[in-house]
Amino acid sequence: MTPLESAKVFMAALEGKDPEKAASVCADDIVIELPGGDNELHGKDGARQLMRMAPPFIRLVRDEKVDGNTVILQGLTRAPGMFANYTTWTFETDGALITRVTFHWRPAN
Fold it and tell me: Is 85 left (phi over 0), alpha (psi -120 to 50) or beta?
């Protein structure tokens, strides 16, 4: 699987709240940095936890960039009827499996 394919599977798992699908494209020692910088999730269990705790946002990817083993997905994250944010997701991979995920929001309205 390519880095972009792995990132897309992870995002599809997030939309579908599918912990096992997310874990399938993650390295055993993946690190997921949560916004704010103080919290991290670790390992495949951390990826599963993110899938379970993520609110039911609508995520629209509008731009994809691949630089070697790094994938950057940018788009809009919306909580229906509440707010919208521009979101940047960065996936670092070992070429196939995701080793690190970071994401950042900035207000869209």
Answer: beta
**What's the CATH number of domain 3-107, 3.10.450.50, 3.40.50.800, 3.40.50.150, 3.40.630.30?**
3.10.450.50
Q: C-alpha angle 59/13/65, rounded to 5°? A: 60
Task: Output the six-digit token pair for 43.
Answer: 């390992």
* Chain segment 57-108, per-residue pLDDT in tens: 777 888 999 999 999 999 988 877 767 889 899 999 999 999 999 988 887 7
Contact yes or no for 98/6 (Cβ under 8 A)? yes
Q: What is the pLDDT of residues 20-55, one digit of tens each?
A: 999 999 999 999 998 876 789 999 999 999 999 887
Residue showing tokens 């599809």: 12
Domains of the chain by residue range: 3-107
